[in-house]
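[job 0412] stage=complex_fold ligand=2-acetamido-2-deoxy-beta-D-glucopyranose status=START
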Amino acid sequence: MKPKMGLISGVLGFIFLSALLFGKAHGAVHSYYWVVKETKFTKLCTTSTVLTVNDSFPGPEIHAQKGDTVFVTVQNDGPYGITIHWHGVRMPRNPWSDGPEYITQCPIKSGGNFTQEIDLSTEEGTLWWHAHSDWSRATVHGAIKVSPANGTSYPFDEPDGDQTIVFSSWYKANVMDVLDESISTGDDPNVSDAYTINGEPGDLYDCSNETMYSLLVEKGKTYLLRILNSILNEEMFFAIANHSMTVVGSDGAYVKPFSSDYLFITPGQTMDVLVTANNSASYYYMVLTPFLDTDSSYDNTTSRALIKYSGNYTTPTSIPTPTFPNISDSISAQLFVVRLKSLADSAHPISVPKNITRQIFMTVSVNLFACPNSTGCTVDGNNKLAASLNNNSFVSPSTALLQEYYDNNYNVSLIADELPNKPPTPFNYSTVANMSTYTKEGTQVITFEYGDEVEIVFQGTKIGATQNHPMHLHGYSFYLVGTGSGDFDNGTDPSRFNLDDPPEVNTIAVPRLGWSAIRFKAHNPGVWFMHCHFERHTTWGMATAVIVKNGDTNETSMRPPPSYMPPCS
Ligand SMILES: *[C@@H]1O[C@H](CO)[C@@H](O)[C@H](O)[C@H]1NC(C)=O
Ligand SMILES: *[C@@H]1O[C@H](CO)[C@@H](O)[C@H](O)[C@H]1NC(C)=O
Ligand SMILES: *[C@@H]1O[C@H](CO)[C@@H](O)[C@H](O)[C@H]1NC(C)=O
Ligand SMILES: *[C@@H]1O[C@H](CO)[C@@H](O)[C@H](O)[C@H]1NC(C)=O
Ligand SMILES: *[C@@H]1O[C@H](CO)[C@@H](O)[C@H](O)[C@H]1NC(C)=O
Ligand SMILES: *[C@@H]1O[C@H](CO)[C@@H](O)[C@H](O)[C@H]1NC(C)=O
Ligand SMILES: *[C@@H]1O[C@H](CO)[C@@H](O)[C@H](O)[C@H]1NC(C)=O
Ligand SMILES: *[C@@H]1O[C@H](CO)[C@@H](O)[C@H](O)[C@H]1NC(C)=O
Ligand SMILES: *[C@@H]1O[C@H](CO)[C@@H](O)[C@H](O)[C@H]1NC(C)=O
Ligand SMILES: *[C@@H]1O[C@H](CO)[C@@H](O)[C@H](O)[C@H]1NC(C)=O
Ligand SMILES: *[C@@H]1O[C@H](CO)[C@@H](O)[C@H](O)[C@H]1NC(C)=O
Ligand SMILES: *[C@@H]1O[C@H](CO)[C@@H](O)[C@H](O)[C@H]1NC(C)=O
Ligand SMILES: [Cu+2]
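[job 0412] stage=complex_fold status=DONE, emitting structure tokens
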């Protein structure tokens, strides 16, 4: 009993201290205690040992209301160091609890623990948490459900039911072995063996019939599906047979409702969707299948789950299944993306930066490095795969960048080089294939002044394997003001930007050989990771860190670190 009491009073003391120091008077406070450990599951006729939180896959949900504070103590009883990230939570002034390994903290060692403070502010809807070290995100992730604050309500009729739907990747092998093998050969990692819906592959896979996920519905009722995509390396299409979906939110912000027969959802994104059980009482398939516009290898399997109406009826002999865009239908993917628009009404105001003080044009590429061994690698002779932003492949530091920044009195130049604002060599990005595939590498960051109004245009290139990339920024949500195919034209494209009701999101699809433009105001000081949400691309260096300097007052500055951060040595 003793250690537990010690832990609880420790956490309460921490909460009290935070409340005292940072005046977080509004919002309720919740505490969770999680144990990270290895758990055995039998799926696809094979027993695998995977890392979990509290033996559950997907992991436990966090339930909170807008403006609440959540403390999570993670006890690491697994064999590897691990970190946990709160995806889409902006963590005002508190990068210390954000979680990406070697950016804001070192991993929580095997046997260690760490209490993180998750500060919800304006987020409302569905967000999620996941491991942010190596590829342990595969099985260590779960939903964060943020309900409206007391005295407020959804911008739509209160749904009759609420259900989280989590998409994940399943490997029969240990995912750490998959990662290590790909690092040692320099080649593409093995693809997953299945996609899962709420942890289950569904009846198209071996040995998976009995365990398929099913959602029980009552005729006439409307359900809020809180859908999140934690798949490692593929963007997805999702549809429900004979039921249309009304998209009402994405990435923890509401959108203007629109109805669609399919969703396009990238790793990192969430979609809040209303579904009304308005068809004949029966079974209907919900289907999850990949969108892929690349020649690299991918998992081309399909996961299914069921919607089952309650009541007395004969089980159908043939269950309706939805139709889908073709697997490589980038037009349907893009048509879905441009339908997302923020509510932008008086109860949900937006503020799109219009006086841009920092403009960044950033190429996103898959590249090569010469193999560090004379014969060790298997790509194009003796090369290994790499990836870059503005021709720099991010090298992860071995200590936490945030701590170094703080310890060096916020002097960025002492800890990292600056990533260029634009590609070092301009070229016709989406059409020129004969640029060198090789890239530079280094720990390069982007530094913003407090209050900068930032525009970043991400530009896909024809270098290496071409593909749509889901780019994600920590510490912020941002407005997706424009997206298109080919090379971004700085003369004509900005005039078509949507500055009236762009969606406020944290992860965007940058089209293959196309571009996406985002804007945000840099008013959250700290060190924040920015990266492709395909796990293999982040591993290869498609990443950087965004450092936002402190403002002039304490209220516009980073908080000091908590008394305990996981040690780096
Ligand atoms: C909101 O209401 C719930 C239920 O009555 C209560 O537990 C919670 O503390 C309230 N939150 C705030 C911030 O007052
Ligand atoms: C996780 O497991 C720990 C240890 O058994 C327990 O104290 C805690 O309540 C569990 N948390 C959840 C969210 O299940
Ligand atoms: C958590 O880690 C701290 C620092 O190492 C240690 O003092 C504390 O006892 C640990 N708590 C638990 C429950 O293991
Ligand atoms: C990756 O796939 C290859 C070919 O199927 C197989 O031989 C190898 O064992 C796999 N690697 C891992 C780590 O499972
Ligand atoms: C290089 O060689 C060593 C020793 O054979 C091996 O462990 C390593 O995985 C190889 N590959 C790379 C990319 O370093
Ligand atoms: C799984 O169920 C489907 C129908 O739902 C059936 O066609 C198939 O034969 C079943 N497979 C196994 C292995 O039981
Ligand atoms: C389901 O949709 C299919 C294809 O549109 C249609 O043929 C079928 O009649 C529908 N079934 C029900 C029960 O609505
Ligand atoms: C998936 O890819 C494999 C290998 O290219 C191919 O044999 C198989 O038919 C594909 N399956 C589907 C469902 O497309
Ligand atoms: C379900 O319907 C069948 C056929 O109409 C009837 O025999 C049976 O009693 C019903 N069961 C229930 C639980 O209502
Ligand atoms: C735009 O930003 C510049 C540079 O920070 C500033 O001098 C100017 O006052 C701003 N203009 C408006 C309209 O806010
Ligand atoms: C637009 O692009 C041209 C050609 O690349 C470049 O010379 C010019 O500086 C750019 N203008 C702005 C505002 O970025
Ligand atoms: C600002 O924060 C520092 C460090 O936490 C503290 O020493 C100082 O008193 C604070 N200043 C004000 C005006 O609150
Ligand atoms: Cu990518």
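The pocket of 2-acetamido-2-deoxy-beta-D-glucopyranose (ligand 12) is lined by residues 554, 560 (CB under 6 Å).
[job 0412] exit 0
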